[in-house]
Design a protein that fits this description.
Layout lengths: L18 H8 L27 E2 L3 E2 L2 H4 L10
Antiparallel strand pairs: 1-2
Length: 76
């Protein structure tokens, strides 16, 4: 019996598995719907970090640095 896992967006290898084994493995597979991305600002380990919005060198941090869109030139 062959299972098409592409319809379910799962990435497990189903070759040689029973339907019950496939269902058990699906519980531990990662899908875009179950993935959570946690943003860690680049300022976390910087010596100039003064909090979420403050920097000892820049004063108020630009949003592109907080959101990791651009590398901060003052990061140490």
């Amino acid at each position: 019996m062959v299972f098409d896992l592409n319809d379910d967006k799962y990435t497990i290898d189903a070759e040689g598995l029973t339907e019950e084994e496939i269902q058990a493995k699906k519980r531990f597979d990662t899908t875009p719907e179950t993935t959570e991305v946690i943003l860690t600002p680049q300022c976390v380990d910087c010596i100039h970090n003064g909090g979420l919005y403050d920097c000892a060198v820049l004063g108020e941090k630009p949003e592109e640095y907080i959101m990791n869109q651009t590398a901060c030139p003052k990061r140490e």
